[in-house]
Amino acid sequence: MVRNVAKVGVVAKVGVKAARRPEVRLPPLEAFGGGELEPDGDYDGLRFSDVDFVGQDGGGARFMDCALMGCAVDETRLHGARVLDSVLTGIRGVGTDLGSSTFRDVEVVDARLGGVQWHGAVLERVVVRGGKIDYLNLREARLRDVVFEGCVLVEPDFGRARLERVEFVDCVLKGADLSGATLVDVDLRRAAEVSFTRGVERLAGAVISPAQLMDLAGVFAAEMGVRVVGLDG
Hints:
The chain is mainly beta. It has helices at 210-215, 217-224; strands at residues 6-7, 30-31, 42-44, 46-49, 62-64, 67-69, 82-89, 92-94, 102-114, 122-134, 142-149, 152-154, 162-169, 172-177, 182-187, 193-198, 206-208. The longest helix has 8 residues, at 217-224.
């Protein structure tokens, strides 16, 4: 149990609850037979290798026990899709629509994405490991048992989202927006870099390290309206 951890808003008396990681064990997979994604399509036990999904519409589709490797998802519409017990490796794209989707027991590895629309989504037992995601939109999403590990998140938007048992491990979290967000057992202590553009007052429910507290002291002071001026100022 971790004690004496700095917690924004209140003093932490007990350790933060750890996220439960997914345990994905894929069965023998069949190669995807080709063709375009279909809205409300059902994809089960398939391997998608270097498939070009650019501009395709798979809204409402279900991916179960699947592996997607090196796939291009620029402007791909997967609104309301369900991705379950699957591994996504090396996917790349800009403007992918994953709004209102469900990701459960999923590993996302070495993704290179920009402007991903993940708003209103439900993420449960998900690991995002490695890679870089610019301008990730997770507004009003629900994240539970999610780990961001060894990745770079540039200006992610968590506005009005709920984060419960979420960990940032060796992760760069740059310019995050927490406006209106709710945080429960969110662990930032092992993040490599943390900065916020808005919503720092919503950090109640997160734990940070003493070093991070010093780094963020100016942000907290500004939020409270405290001016920090030297004696010769």
